[in-house]
Design goal:
Elements (H helix, E strand, L loop, with lengths): L1 E3 L5 H6 L5 E6 L4 H14 L7 E6 L5 H6 L6 E6 L2 E7 L6 H14 L1
Parallel strand pairs: 1-3, 2-3
Antiparallel strand pairs: 2-4, 4-5
Amino acid sequence: MVVTVTDQDFVEQVVRAPLPVIVDFTAAWCPPCRALAPVFERLSRGYVGRLRFARMDTDENLQSPARVGVQGMPTLVLFANGRPVGRLVGPHPARLQADIDRLLAQVGDL
């Protein structure tokens, strides 16, 4: 349920997406990213039709993370209507669902 996005398809997969998209900016060398990955994957199944889940490797894709201002990993950024509307830096796996729900509620307030 998690799609992999690259600099080449970021606009199509994230910015122009009809649903909000939460992007996990990650790197293979990052231990907290590896701890978060299975939780992110599991949660993606519960938001089908409401929220898309995407992952981007920041070592292989430099442009999009720089444009969004990603400075540390893991960073999750929620995009809605083509713009970043919320971010989680170093999210804790146990609180991830509550944090995502909070960000989604903010989208409803826009």
